[in-house]
Amino acid sequence: MDLKNKNIAILVAPKFQEDEVLSPRRHLMDLGAEVTLVGLHKGPCSSKGQTTVDVTALIDDVHQNQFDGLIIPGGGAPETLRQNKSILNFVRAFMQEARPVGAICHGPQVLISTGSTWCRSLTGYPGIKDDLINAGAVYLDQEVVVDGNLVTSRFPGDLPAFNKAFTDLLCKYDKVRAPWAHASPSQVIEYAILNEIKALALYENLAKKTKDKLSKAKFKFLAETERAHKERLERMYEFMSHGKKAIPRDLWEEGGESVDSINPDDDILKILKGAIAAEESANNLYVQIAEKMTNPEGRRMFLELAEDELSHRHMIEVEYATRVGQAMPSAWEKEPWWSEGDW
């Protein structure tokens, strides 16, 4: 593994667990990474034991964009770190942007204070198990847990597994090519809300443009359903973030078709074909989200949304078929005849 172009921040405060700073730093540097110790004060910082390290960067002087990953060691340091607003903003930015984050022992306490643990699978020192569960996390008692952009472990004895998992995540992470693999729950929901808003506007526009009463009623129904989806996702986001309002926005790169690519001034048949592709993409998106959800209620909600989008696609296919006088090709017929498993 080669980490020569990677820069990793490790958060340090007094009473840190020495092994949980020294071991990851040595491991990452051996692989060529640059490691920066970030803290509240520059200069010597003492661990729980006899070890002292030099903090070389103040939290107020750094930005998340300088780093490819972040490690939050344990010990007594997280109690200090979690009370500092700049630290919380720094960590929250990593989680919201789905950059690789590693937290070990009491380190997840900082994640709790950023509101980043809801519906995430993670581990930590057994003494903070209840705190993590109360903050909406799914606690797993194992040496290392990887959930999207997040790697967590329980105590120094887990460091070999922790170091390997965090290194693997750094090597695999590519937000341009694979944003969904590392997207945080808040990012996913904000992206989904944005797509629902666009779909709502599309169907409202189609309802205004069409003169056929049956088609008009169909598009109005689709618009209202997309509105209900948007509101449902917004309520879920507010519950996750303890009252914070969602900001609908794209990820770094969208996959598949979306209503963004549909020109409302195009020919109606072209618009319908675009809408069919967008609904299929939305169905796939919600199925993928449901598969990653560990919260039963969240999983059920996204499966229901997926079913709605599939139903929408069928409705638009019927509309298209009615207008052209022939049915759309089935999913099976869209595949090449030599597709694996078809023969």
Short description:
Helices cover 50% and strands 12% of the residues. By secondary structure, the protein is of the alpha/beta class. It is elongated, with a radius of gyration of 24 Å.
Secondary structure category: alpha/beta
Question: What is the N-to-C order of secondary-structure elements (H for helix, E for strand)?
Answer: EHEEEEEHHEHEHEEEHHHHHHH
Give the termini separation. 42 Å
User: How many beta-strand elements?
Assistant: 11
CATH topology of the largest domain: Rossmann fold
Describe the biggest sheet? 7 strands, mixed
**Based on CA inertia axes, which overall geometry fits?**
elongated
- What is the count of distinct domains? 2
Look at the structure and give the mean pLDDT: 85
Strand content: 5-15%
Estimated radius of gyration = 24 Å
CATH architecture verdict of the largest domain: 3-Layer(aba) Sandwich
State the CATH class of the largest domain: Alpha Beta
**Low-confidence spans:** 253-261, 328-343
Question: For the largest beta sheet, what order do the strands appear in spatially?
Answer: 5-2-1-6-7-11-10
Descriptive report:
Helix content is 50%, strand content 12%. The chain is of the alpha/beta class. The chain folds into 2 domains: 7-173, 3-Layer(aba) Sandwich (Rossmann fold), CATH 3.40.50.880; 185-334, Up-down Bundle (Ferritin). The strands form 3 sheets. The protein has a 7-stranded mixed sheet with strand order 5-2-1-6-7-11-10, with helices on both faces. It has a two-stranded antiparallel ribbon with strand order 3-4. Helix 8 runs antiparallel to helix 10, helix 9 packs antiparallel against helix 11 (296-324) and helix 10 runs antiparallel to helix 11 (296-324).
